[in-house]
Backbone:
């Protein structure tokens, strides 16, 4: 196994007094597709927000490319090559599709590659090229998700965290988006997938982490984990 | 009755109203930017405008130049003041929620008003360039006051430059993105505090332009801020909070109402339009 690009050690995250992530520890090896699965409320999204610098951890450490990035704000992390596709896409709805994508190249580290990156995103999602001048607020849920993914790719990242991108989308669109994620990963990018759809996540990823009540309770390669083990970890039996 | 109406709704009044509309638009545009982006009701905007008027007056007297040329100095100056105010003062209190920030702008307006009273005395001021009284004659006995035309052009150019900045530049896009979604903007590498500071700087820069226009068009005092804050409010509410085209249309509506109302009922007419707008379309004409 290659050296982990992202290491999370005993991270705790709270909202006021409520502890959303109790103590999460996981590794994300370079270049892999890694999935983080768990039931609703297991703390997956909070953990992703904490890693990406949207939320501050109350304990623990996060390392990215060997450097301590604990508590670093999102706007700094994105320049280091860590990008998050947030839950619910969070497009800039009053801006055009192309302006949304150009915002992805806002980090100074990404501006030089604007044209190439834009070309690549349009290749990946041709429908976005057709709708480049439409307001992203007028798009369908699936297309907004494509904008959010494209926007994250525009930041020129080494590792992208995808937070429940299949939420609320039609199965055919989910299938299409997952195919694109595999393409992205084949280009050498490290991918972290957060999913409630366990089957799909396990099929897509090489390595799985299962979260329960704010902890990572089971980790293993997708091939080695048995259904029985996963079920136990997922439901806490 | 008909005769009265004919006297009010004349072509000349329409021309004056439209010309005045640009001035009101630029008055409202700084307010609408702060509403839309920083999500803050800036109660000090009127004082910012009067500060701009004083800056232009004093600089044009000291350097003996045309008041309009003072914009070269007042725009950058006010931009920097705005950025500093937002960075060291307002950003800090915004962490506590929007009410403390609102109170800070209220406090700022009082401090600025008293500071201007102290520094510049309570005397009435007005900038009177040579062209202030000239008119361009049109067929049919109509005329265009040169000053009003110049002020309209200055206002429109300001709004155009602002629109282009917000549409075409990285910083402009970052500011729009911040107004749409703070979390997503920070994920794109935008420092929210910096975006807010630049937005306040821009609002101040437009207040410099509005101040120049106000100071050339009307007499002003250190205490005039409240009056212009109310007008800016009106423009923002009519146009829709956070919308620049809205500020333009709001300014036009406000300007026309003011002129058709005449000297005695101008303000009354403007606020009647405002109340009708609030009742019929409270989100404003251009609200999204």
Residues:
């Amino acid at each position: 196994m290659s050296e982990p690009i992202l290491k999370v050690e005993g991270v705790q995250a709270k909202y006021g007094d409520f502890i959303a992530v109790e103590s999460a520890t996981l590794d994300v090896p370079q270049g892999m597709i890694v999935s983080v699965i768990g039931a609703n409320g297991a703390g997956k999204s909070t953990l992703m927000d904490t890693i990406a610098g949207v939320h501050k951890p109350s304990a623990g450490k996060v390392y990215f490319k060997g450097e301590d990035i604990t508590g670093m704000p999102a706007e700094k992390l994105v320049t280091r090559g860590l990008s998050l596709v947030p839950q619910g896409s969070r497009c800039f709805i009053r801006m055009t599709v192309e302006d949304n994508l150009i915002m992805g190249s806002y980090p100074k580290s990404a501006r030089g590659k604007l044209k190439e990156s834009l070309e690549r995103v349009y290749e990946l999602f041709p429908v976005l090229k057709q709708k480049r001048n439409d307001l992203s607020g007028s798009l369908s849920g699936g297309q907004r998700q494509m904008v959010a993914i494209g926007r994250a790719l525009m930041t020129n990242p080494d590792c992208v965290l995808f937070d429940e991108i299949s939420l609320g989308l039609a199965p055919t669109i989910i299938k299409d988006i997952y195919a694109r994620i595999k393409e992205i990963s084949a280009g050498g990018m490290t991918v972290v997938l957060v999913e409630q759809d366990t089957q799909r996540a396990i099929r897509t990823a090489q390595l799985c982490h299962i979260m329960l009540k704010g902890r990572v309770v089971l980790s293993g390669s997708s091939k080695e984990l048995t259904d029985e083990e996963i079920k136990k970890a997922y439901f806490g039996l | 009755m008909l005769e009265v109406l004919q006297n009010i709704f004349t072509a000349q009044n329409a021309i004056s109203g439209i010309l005045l509309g640009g001035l009101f638009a630029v008055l409202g545009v700084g307010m609408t930017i702060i509403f839309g982006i920083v999500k803050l009701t800036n109660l000090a905007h009127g004082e910012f405008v009067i500060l701009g008027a004083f800056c232009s007056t004093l600089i044009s007297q000291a350097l003996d130049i045309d008041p309009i040329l003072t914009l070269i100095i007042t725009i950058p100056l006010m931009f920097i003041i705005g950025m500093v105010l937002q960075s060291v003062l307002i950003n800090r209190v915004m962490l506590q929620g929007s009410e403390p920030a609102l109170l800070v702008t209220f406090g700022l307006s009082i401090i600025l008003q008293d500071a201007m009273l102290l520094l510049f005395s309570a005397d009435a001021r007005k900038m009177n360039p040579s062209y202030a009284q000239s008119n361009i004659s049109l067929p049919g006995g109509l005329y265009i006051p040169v000053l009003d035309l110049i002020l309209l052009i200055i206002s429109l150019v300001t709004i155009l430059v602002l629109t282009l900045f917000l549409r075409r530049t990285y910083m402009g896009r970052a500011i729009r993105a911040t107004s749409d979604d703070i979390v997503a903007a920070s994920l794109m590498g935008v420092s929210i505090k910096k975006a807010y500071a630049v937005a306040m700087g821009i609002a101040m820069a437009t207040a410099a332009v509005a101040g120049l226009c106000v100071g050339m068009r009307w007499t002003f005092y250190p205490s005039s801020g409240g009056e212009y804050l109310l007008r800016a409010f009106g423009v923002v509410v009519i146009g829709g909070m956070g919308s620049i085209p809205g500020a333009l249309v709001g300014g036009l509506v406000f300007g026309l109402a003011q002129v058709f109302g005449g000297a005695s009922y101008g303000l009354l007419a403007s606020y009647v339009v405002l109340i009708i707008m609030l009742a019929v379309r409270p989100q404003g004409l251009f609200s999204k």
About this structure: The first helix of chain B runs from residue 2 to 8.
